[in-house]
Amino acid sequence: MKVEDIKLYYAYNEWANKRILNAAEQATADQLVAPNDIGWGNLRGALAHILDAEYGWFSFLFGREDEGVIDPASFADIAALRERWERQNEVTRGCLDSLADEDLNRIHTSERGGKTHHWILWQALAHVVNHGAQHRAECAAILTGFGHSPGDMDMTLFYNELDISSSGSGKTKHEDIELLLRYNDWANDKILDSAERVSAEQLGKANDFGWGSLRGALVHLMDAEYVWRNLLEDGNHVEWLQPDNFPDVAAIRARWNTERAEFWRYFAGLSDENLSSVISYEGDETRHRVLWHCLAHVVNHGTQHRSECAALLTGFSRSPGNLDFTVFLLED
Q: Which residues, at least 6 apart from 68, have a Cβ–Cβ distance to it below 8 Å?
């Protein structure tokens, strides 16, 4: 990874956070603190947690004074939360501006639970964005339930709005994107392992978020990888996979294993030069994209919809556990 790559991640992160805050401003005071089981107690708690994670990690990684966990109760409304978040955005931008490419591989050490952990800077910074995507999806589910959907927060939509189509300078390391894709597989497996423990009725139970049902959300996750791999490899727009064709999680997993093998076959054939090249494909209009940006979207998209699946599974008493990128790094 290069600094310009990390800055792109954080430009997306700030854009997506603002979409959530814009939607949250439409919620009533009661909705802001209405208890729930999926988002840090309530909507305000979930929003504050996203902010707190960025604040805490940047305090640690850049040697800034840490005043402790941000208390959701300290924000009377979204306007107060937005004001505090904008101050963090300024800190985040300033910290990233201070970096040179070689800084991204420096090691940071932390102690927790009697254990010593070592974090490579770029990976810790990627975790913050991935963590935000996970919990924004929870917030989006809560807001959708209140009738205030934030709309699509896909990384590709961010690319479209900002016309992110330049390869910049230098090459993207194959091993860095490989790490993100291996995380994607690891997290998908955790979701599937939990989903295998739900009943057939729960798998197909209708909901207001998560592609209609848990089965719909799982198939959408798999489908995105299938569709993007075909688009990037051959320029082909394939037919969407249909949830009704998968009667149970075993059938989903079997099809996913086939697609996973195909995805890794495709990725293995890419060089650093390929990853940094600009490709074109046809959608609602002709799009020009840096190849690795599309792969980063696949991982980010997975994080978003895995969060929906995790919320549904938790509601069925089948929580998949912690899906954070940092947990993967510790286990890897």
A: none
Core vs surface per residue 151-185: b (16+ CB within 10 A) or e:
eebbbbbbbbeeebeebeeebbbbebbebbbebbb
Tokens for 324? 């954070």
pLDDT digits (tens, 9 = 90+) for 259-294: 999 999 999 999 999 999 999 988 788 889 999 999
Whether residue 168 is predicted with pLDDT greater than 70 in this model: the reply is no
pLDDT digits (tens, 9 = 90+) for 181-236: 999 999 999 999 999 999 999 999 999 877 899 999 999 999 999 999 999 999 88
Contact between 186 and 306 under an 8 Å Cβ cutoff? The reply is: no
Domains assigned to the chain: 1-152 (1.20.120.450), 154-332 (1.20.120.450)
Helical (H) or strand (E) element with 202? helix 200-204
Task: Judge whether 321 and 187 are in contact, CB under 8 Å.
Answer: no
Q: Could you give the percent of the chain with pLDDT greater than 90?
A: 88
Of the candidates 8, 1, 10, 195, the one whose C-alpha atom is nearest the C-alpha of residue 92 is 10
Q: Which residues contact 301 (CB under 8 A, 6 or more apart)?
A: 154, 155, 224
